[in-house]
Amino acid sequence: MEEAYVRLLCPECAKDWESTPSQLPSHDAVYHCPNCHASRRLAEFTRTDHDLRTLKGLQ
């Protein structure tokens, strides 16, 4: 079975990366960019609404 992934984009430094939902906290938890360490709700790091729906649906 192929695992889904979520595309993330930092709103401050524009770093983009992918992660599996199982490796991420809840969409409403505070998350820190691995590049610039900006702190925001994880939902604000998702690139698209589809990525946010995937994250919510698989957690």
Automatic annotation (TrEMBL):
<protein>
    <recommendedName>
        <fullName>DUF7836 domain-containing protein</fullName>
    </recommendedName>
</protein>
<feature type="domain" description="DUF7836">
    <location>
        <begin position="1"/>
        <end position="59"/>
    </location>
</feature>
<dbReference type="Pfam" id="PF25206">
    <property type="entry name" value="DUF7836"/>
</dbReference>
<dbReference type="InterPro" id="IPR057158">
    <property type="entry name" value="DUF7836"/>
</dbReference>
